[in-house]
Amino acid sequence: MARKSPLDDPVNAAHAWARYRQIMKWLLAATVLTVAIATGLLFAYNGMISVHFYIAVALGISLTMLLGGGLMGLVFLSNGTGHDESVDNQLPGRDEFWSPKDD
Known about the structure:
elongated
C-alpha cells in the first residue's frame, strides 16, 4: 500500500509550490539576461545577419533554459518535499530479470 505523500497536506503543498514559483521567476530572469547577452554578442561579432536568426536564437535559448529548468525544478520539488519516498516501487520479481552479477 502506498504511503501518504507530504504534498497531500495543503499547507505543505502551498509552501512547495510557492517555492517552485519563486525558483521559476529567478530562472526567467536568468533566461532573459542570457538571451540579451547572447544576442548582443552575436550582433557585436556578426552584425545584422537576419532578424529570423536572432528570433531563432532567442527562442532556442529560452525554450531550452525554461524547459530544462522547469523539469529540474519539479524533480527538486518532488524530492525536497518527501513525495518521492511515498511512492511504492517494490516490483514483484524484479531480481529475476537483472542482478548485479550480470554486469
